[in-house]
Specification:
Elements (H helix, E strand, L loop, with lengths): L4 H10 L13 E6 L2 E8 L4 H10 L4 H16 L6 E5 L1 H9 L29 H7 L6
Helix pairs in contact: 1-2, 2-3
Amino acid sequence: MDEDLDMFKHAVENDAEHHLLGQVRAKAYDAVINGYEVAGGSIRIHQKAIQDLNFKALGMTPESARTQFGFFLDALEYGTPPHGGFASGIERTCMVLCGTENIRDVMAFPKTASAQDLMMDSPGEVDEGQLKELGITVVE
């Protein structure tokens, strides 16, 4: 939210533990029917200075941000207009319309209660390069 921008800047620049980041709000919205989120979206970041702050908050150096997201940063240099999106959760909408409280009643290939996707054998093994890129260490 525009009114949280100063707090966001302060948190990223001055608050070593980023305690304030949890108070910063996004320009996001949801559609809710009977307590179930059936759609959601947000206004995307379209200002380079704000995107740079986001990368810094994530612990990325300007160089790593450029390496991974250079195409996006270049686009922001041209004055990307405010833009947003909204995605409908058709399964959740069907769930509400059918009067069920279980999304598995309306999905052809739902994940199990332990978040496994049996059709795609997911989650699966992850190679060390992917873990390193994400800064994840697996402890046995």
